[in-house]
Structures
1.
Amino acid sequence: MRTCTKCGVPKPDSEFSKDRARRDGLHPWCNECKRVGQRSNYTRNRKSILAKHKLRVRGYTNSARLRTWSKYGIKISVKEYDHILLEQNGKCKICNKEDDRRLSVDHTTGTVRGLLCRRCNSAIGLFGDSPQLLVEAAKYLESKAPGMAGDTSRKGGDAVASVDRAHCSPPI
């Protein structure tokens, strides 16, 4: 049994949330007072809370970007990044999606190639940044396309109409 420091009502420990920072391991306000306090804080500071959330969702602030880039040896300024972003219309250089853009970097020199979505950037990385391997993979996919000559995966070579190819990049 403990007393809430906000409302002053004695309540059982089960009415208080956990708080590792406190010696006794429990928050000083009861769950009800804490909920009311959080709601009033949100209504008072709604604009700044949403602005901070928008930054987290969109990505880093400029200073955080620079720290991350320099940490990994990437040689680019915020102006150069913004220029590439405008040049590519904010889209992935391969699939033209506006999703979660990442810098595509030549890891041997640290120079930036352009902006790619997470999926395309990961795919290139998984192929070891090798253009030859990517060409071979494209040839393989083209030779194994459903309904094409050489495809033995389906009886009669029937193509499946419901295949979602929206995530596929244009042929090389």
2.
Amino acid sequence: MNLYFDLETGGLISSKHGIIAIGWVLETAAHTVIGSGLIEMNPYEYAEVDPTAFQYNHYDKKQCKTFQHPELALAQFVREVRTLTKGTRVNLIGYNSDAFDIPMLKRLFAKYDRASWNKLFTYKSIDIFKTVLWLYDNQLLKATDSHKLVDVCRGYGIDLDAHDALRDTLATRELSMKLVGSIRNG
């Protein structure tokens, strides 16, 4: 099973800034979607927030302060994924996730539910951004304005209003399917 995910955060420093939203899509090994969700949390409860982050992520301070406590949000995320996977561990898949999203998510788990990390996720993760870079370096990727998710998606005909955790997750999943298809078809 694969869990595509994306985070919206209160900044770019994983050791300092907090998560505002987790968008996720769970699929079977046969690539059938069996669940998805968007879980929002109040990042001010456990971390700092860089006010400039709100220029990108469609949230604001007042709105964030109404969201549930991060511990409750994480418990909801764990419960929803566990219910769907029935105890099967999943691979994490994201865009630039190895460098950014996974460290942010691990920090949240370390603070509120360290034990669930290894129960939910395999040791494997797939970073579609790294795949894009490899394909580009080997001249197998369509030319795009940049390697940002929104630009790569545009190059593959995927419409994306970036910086919404669930929409970015869905776009990452669609992009990964198109990349696999283009590799298979030569």
3.
Amino acid sequence: MAGAVPDVANVGYLRLPADQHGLQVRPLFSEPRVAVLPAGHHLAGQASVSIADLAGEHLLQHPDLVPEWRDVATELRGRRRPRPAPLMHTVEEKLEHAAAGRGISVLPESTAAYYRRPDVAYARIADIAPTAVGLAWVSARRSPLIAEFAALATADAQTTADTQARKAAPASAVTAVTA
């Protein structure tokens, strides 16, 4: 939103962390991150992996976008410079590169749920922080419509979180609460 053309959008969803200069940002939710792997990869089929499991893989993103990987990556420890990440503009391009075995990507879990393909596999990364999403608008804009939208988005995010928590709770915990 910062640097965007004025009057094009009143609000937008923003993946955090991000430059928030000139913006009002309301955090909405967080979600786990997943590794995108070729379907035939030795870690494909695992429900979750650790960042150490991915240390020997080539990351198809700039290392600073996944600092947890950067800190353990074996390819960054040698004298040889790792091959640069290919220039990619879309999720589909990331999936194509992963499917072709050129490396792995790290994406939000919701993106993996939306982009299902038979030639890639997803594994939740158990030991890295989730990614956060917020609602953003230009700080100087004061509008009842923006305030109402922000309130509705916050309420929806809370309802979704509550629903997911109930689904994830063991049956005995749900019974104990409702009894």
